[in-house]
Amino acid sequence: MRTQRRVAQILAAISLIGLALGFSVLGLLIVANEHDGGASMIGGIISILLGAAFLITALVHWQHWQFLWTLLTPGLADDACGERRKSRPSPEAQTPDSGELVG
């Protein structure tokens, strides 16, 4: 279930970035090919601003989910599968049970 939520979050961010790039490129093309003068220039600028708004929304969305992911799953590994890593004790932490050296 967590993997599904994670994939949905990634796809939403990709969609928002795609919209941002699309509107920005469209706005740049409109501004570069100004045929009507001022009317097309205003449309191009609005399109570029809309692209910037989608980009900001994508960044806020990504940061929001990254923050929630770290709060809700502190013991999970950073991998996409969400599997728990097996913690192995360090060699320094391993001591004999009785404390005596066996000779």
Number of strands: 0
Order of helices and strands: HH
Radius of gyration equals 26 Å
What is the overall pLDDT average?
Answer: 76
Major sheet, described briefly? none
Specify the helix fraction band: 55-70%
Brief synopsis:
The chain is an all-alpha fold and 103 residues long.
Q: How would you describe what is shown here?
A:
The protein has 103 residues and is an all-alpha fold. The protein has one domain (2-76). It contains two helices and no strands.
Give the helices and strands, then pairings:
Elements: H1 2-32, H2 38-72
Helix pairs in contact: 1-2
Question: Keyphrases for this structure?
Answer:
103 residues, mainly alpha, 2 helices, 64% helix, rod-shaped
